Amino acid sequence: MSYNQSSPAVNFSAVTPSDTVNLIATARALYVGVAGDVVCVNASGTAITFVGVSAGSILPVKTTRVNSTSTTATNIVALF
Asked: Of 13, 20, 39, 51, whose CA is between 20 and 30 Å from 60?
């Protein structure tokens, strides 16, 4: 069964930021539990830093990995 981007997430997983290990699948969004910066990597391998993401925010980006270097936010959950 496929879901479009506007559908609610059907799965989720705690994120352990890593500079080398990808998420179990491409996330459709990230929930950030504790405020800080989040470094996301897209499918083409480009990393971008989202600065000052608020606690309790949903970051609506498709990402394959959350890098540990420069990510200061914690309690991140990937939504699939």
From this structure: 20
Whole-angstrom CA distances from 40 to 2, 15, 52, 70 are: 24, 12, 13, 10
Place of tokens 């420069």: 70
pTM of structure: 0.90
Question: How far is residue 78's CA from residue 80's CA, in Å, rounded to a whole number?
Answer: 6
pLDDT digits (tens, 9 = 90+) for 29-80: 999 999 999 999 999 999 999 999 999 999 999 999 999 999 999 999 999 9
Look up residue 59 and give its two tokens. 């970051």
With beta carbons less than 8 A apart as the criterion, state whether 32 and 39 touch.
no
Q: What is the per-residue DSSP string for 27-47?
A: BSEEEEEE-EEEEEE-TTS-E
